[in-house]
Amino acid sequence: MMTSSFNSYATGVFDVLNADVREALLATGRRLSFSDGQLVQSRGHNTLDLAIILSGGLRMMTFGDDGSALLTAILGPGQQINEVTLFAKAARTHDAVAVGDTELLTLSQSEYLRFSKKYPEIVQALLVSNVHRVHQLVEVLNDLRALPKSLVLARLLLKNARHQQSSYNSNTKNCVELGLTQDDIAMFLGVSRAYLNKVLGGLSDLGLIKVSYRKVAVLDLAALEAWIQKHLTYDPVELFEELDVPDDT
């Protein structure tokens, strides 16, 4: 089951496949292990393969020539990378760094083609996963273009808190300590830690969050959501839960 740590709520390919196809997939390709902080792949490389996270996680980042680093997401078990290279023959868009001890299942282009002919379910699974990912990224882009940083941050904290609730079946809790660091947040927003501390301080003064050493906790999910709705200039569009989608859509 996919458990993403930060800013990635897209369904992973393993979440869509049934148990029999997952087992067949696990018996295909090869497994690679990485230690915490190890560079898994670099932006610009064009090896034709598909990689699925089995354990640990991946920080999807972009490193600048000046030493800067931007964080797009932290992916968790069940999620996949490198579809853009495998299907579009395009260069990889991110540097990937292991989060904790990480194991990947990798399929070469020929292995994927053989597997998809025998188990065409993987094609639909990748389509669903990537449509979810595009939907999420468009919403993030809208936030970054249209909203002040304080509101972008509040939306980010709320989404991660809701996702963390869902991942750990703790939907009854209204207070959530987030599994992400202030460094992660600053790298995602593209701001300095000093600026981030100022914005976090504003939300903390409102009693919506608690800031401790490197960590952030949402104190009242309902209150944070109400504050966001009050200040939004457009209606956010979230992914439907499967059971909420009418049969005729």
From TrEMBL:
GO cellular component, one term: cytosol
GO molecular function annotations of the record: DNA binding; DNA-binding transcription factor activity
Highest taxon in the source lineage: Bacteria
Start and end residues of each Cyclic nucleotide-binding domain: 13-133
Keywords on record: DNA-binding, Transcription, Transcription regulation
InterPro entries reported in the protein's UniProt record: cNMP-bd_dom (IPR000595), cNMP-bd_dom_sf (IPR018490), Env_Response_Regulators (IPR050397), HTH_CRP (IPR012318), RmlC-like_jellyroll (IPR014710), WH-like_DNA-bd_sf (IPR036388), WH_DNA-bd_sf (IPR036390)
Pfam families reported in the protein's UniProt record: cNMP_binding, HTH_Crp_2
Name this protein carries in UniProt: CRP-like cAMP-binding protein
Organism, as annotated: Roseibium hamelinense
